[in-house]
Design goal:
With 597 residues, the protein is α+β, with helices and mostly antiparallel strands.
Length: 597
């Protein structure tokens, strides 16, 4: 008996469909791609039951000729490519000719269209692989495609779908993903009859991306738009500053020629670009739009086109890093006053005393319209706080009398006084308080000192030989890494020699590393990165160990010297990326205290 047989055409069709269609968002992705390729500037998406029961996309594009509709939905039927060479010069989102064929195999697919060339309106239905004759009728413009009852004839596949609400959320995310790359198109999304998203056309990529970011509570002022060009490619980036961050990479989005792709190395380029702007474990909000020569890229490696091969990836990687490094600047955080509005609630709070005199209590209001003359309710003074403040002032005056101040240099003009840093004191054994111009600053003493030491270490690194070498045992990967990167460690001031497989000895290290042998050994055992990152991590460890700690008392003259150096830094951030300086303007302080004059 023969064991090899040809599969039934319908069975093989559904097996092939499983590679392309996983869930409703797979269908939606293909429908949206076709609508965009058709030149539509308005695309409306509607789903019921999470897209499982019904999923429809309508566009106002060029439509489909009736002659083309006759072969639409057959396997490998496409208008996007005609020869092998076209695979290497793709300018459309779709090109394989598998999508509608696969969708028609697992749903009831209806395609209603109006051809812009002929004006003919036609409708085609493919119900789980069974084609019907083309009938008259369709929309007045563009095309409407509808998929109903996904996997109804394949119960096993249908059982793997998630709840309708989860599938609907995925579909909305797909619409957002597509909309970001095409600001000139209006996108709407409705679920179970309710409008969930309506993004109008935008004049720029930043304006479109802010439609997403504003929903996350991100202000326009915290986002920049960057542009750069290279040989055969251009890069546009919409990115948040250091105040805009999250704990994962989900909002580092990469687009190549309009397609959202999963490309870790380019996500990594974004992280490299931010460098010390963000603390360890934090990731930015950034959307990268790459337009590359179609001959240099290949999307034909994954059924969903999520992956891409890029020949000039190294050049694009460098461009992304450089753009972010030069374009995203650190901002010193400012304390914003919390404004509370008060109003008289006559109906509930006005009461009569026994003597007939009315009293009123005040209630906080969150009304959008501000009140011209806010009335602040009386609050009992905190006597303990006043006593503490008085004692602090007496201690400060005594310190000034006992410690003679050094001679002050004569200031050349009035502008110099504005830039003078006046040290006020230390708070919580951690923050140095200083006044400069019309601003009050809080400076984290440990983080500031750490940064100053870090910069000094990078600028001058003296090496000290060890009388007794330090033995370091490493795993196989680290052993191989050390063998290939000995010169990198030598530049960092660490001389390390291999004694046996997995056994190394440190014979010299930076003089500043005295008493840090354990940390240096741990660093060598775990570090596998490029030269710049190794240098940054090593000197950050040294600087952190040697810096003034939180909780340490600091005398006035040391504090003033530390502040002078801190304010002269170009980047007010520790080597780990934390901003160590907070600013509060005189105007904001007066507002917080209720002083309007």
């Amino acid at each position: 008996m023969a064991r090899i047989n040809l599969l039934d055409p319908l069975l093989s069709q559904r097996i092939a469909a499983g590679e392309v269609i996983e869930r409703p968002l797979s269908i939606l992705r293909e429908f949206l791609d076709n609508a965009i390729d058709a030149g539509a500037d308005e695309i409306r998406t509607s789903i019921d039951g999470g897209g499982i029961d019904r999923l429809s996309v309508s566009d106002n594009g060029s439509g489909i000729d009736r002659e083309d509709l006759r072969i639409l939905g057959n396997r490998h039927a496409t208008s996007k490519i005609h020869s092998l060479d076209d695979l290497y010069d793709i300018h459309t989102l779709g090109f394989r000719g598998e999508a509608l064929y696969s969708i028609g195999a697992v749903t009831k697919l209806t395609v209603s269209t109006c051809s812009a060339a002929t004006g003919e309106r036609s409708t085609l239905i493919i119900d789980n692989g069974m084609r019907s004759d083309i009938t008259e009728g369709g929309p007045e413009k563009g095309t409407t495609v509808t998929a109903e009852d996904l996997f109804m004839d394949i119960p096993a596949r249908r059982s793997f779908l998630k709840r309708a609400s989860t599938e609907a959320s995925m579909c909305r995310a797909m619409v957002v993903s597509k909309a970001l790359a095409f600001p000139s198109v209006r996108f709407t999304f409705s679920s179970d009859g309710a409008l969930r998203l309506d993004w109008p056309k935008a004049d720029s990529l930043k304006e479109r991306v802010m439609m997403l970011y504003r929903g996350e509570g991100i202000a326009d002022a915290d986002v920049v738009e960057l542009h750069g060009e290279g040989e055969g490619f251009s890069v546009d980036i919409v990115a948040g500053n250091q105040a805009v961050k999250r704990s994962d990479r989900k909002e580092i989005r990469i687009y190549v020629n309009g397609r959202a792709v999963e490309e870790y190395s380019l996500q990594q380029a974004v992280s490299y670009g931010y460098g010390e702007l963000l603390p360890g474990g934090a990731f930015p909000y950034a959307v990268v739009f790459i337009n590359d020569d179609p001959e240099l890229i290949d999307f034909n490696i994954h059924p969903t086109k999520k992956e891409v091969k890029i020949r000039n990836k190294a050049e694009i990687h460098h461009a992304i890093v450089s753009l972010i490094q030069s374009g995203v600047k650190r901002r010193i955080p400012e304390i914003k006053p919390v404004q509370q509005e008060f109003y008289l609630a006559e109906s509930e709070s006005v009461k009569r005393t026994e003597g007939g005199v009315r009293t009123a209590s005040y209630h906080q209001s969150h009304r959008s319209a501000p009140i011209a003359e806010p009335q602040i309710p009386y609050a009992e003074k905190d006597r303990a706080w006043l006593e503490k403040a008085k004692a602090l002032m007496e201690k400060r005056e005594k310190s000034r009398r006992e410690s003679p101040a050094p001679e002050k240099a004569k200031e050349k003009d009035g502008a110099a006084d504005e830039e003078r840093i006046r040290y006020i004191g230390q708070a919580f054994h951690l923050f140095l308080i200083a006044e400069k111009g019309h601003d009050l600053y809080l400076v984290d003493q440990h983080a500031a000192h750490e940064r100053i030491l870090y910069d000094e270490l990078i600028s001058k690194c003296s090496v000290q030989p060890l009388l007794v070498p330090l033995r370091v045992e490493v795993d196989q990967l680290t052993d191989s890494f050390l063998s290939d990167h000995l010169s990198v460690y030598e530049k960092l001031g660490i001389t390390i020699e291999r004694r046996d497989e997995g056994v190394w000895e440190i014979t010299a290290m930076p003089a500043s590393c005295r008493s840090m042998e354990t940390e240096i050994v741990d660093f060598i055992q775990s570090a596998r990165a490029d030269e710049k990152e190794l240098e940054s991590r090593l000197f950050a460890i040294i600087a952190c160990k040697a810096a003034i700690k939180a909780g340490d008392d600091i005398d006035r003259w040391s504090a003033e010297e530390l502040l002078q150096k801190a304010f002269s830094l170009s980047e007010p951030a520790c080597p780990h990326g934390r901003t160590f300086m907070i600013r509060l303007s005189e105007k904001e302080l007066r507002l917080m205290a209720g002083r309007t004059g």
